[in-house]
Here is the input.
Amino acid sequence: MRKIFLAALLVLSVAVTGSFASDMPEKLGITYVKAPLNIPSIVAKYNMTFEKAYEGVDLSFPEITEG
Here is the structure.
């Protein structure tokens, strides 16, 4: 019973993951704030976190300088 449940869960997770992949935009702008010191944004940009998560999507990082 447990093996059947795990197999069904695996099939369902693969099916759901495939449906989200088609919903990815072609372009995505992620705002980037340097000041005041925004360490999470700086680390994410340095480690290319968004590029890895949105592979195949044209990303831009417009910097917010005021407002």
Summary: The radius of gyration is 18 Å. The longest helix spans residues 2-21.
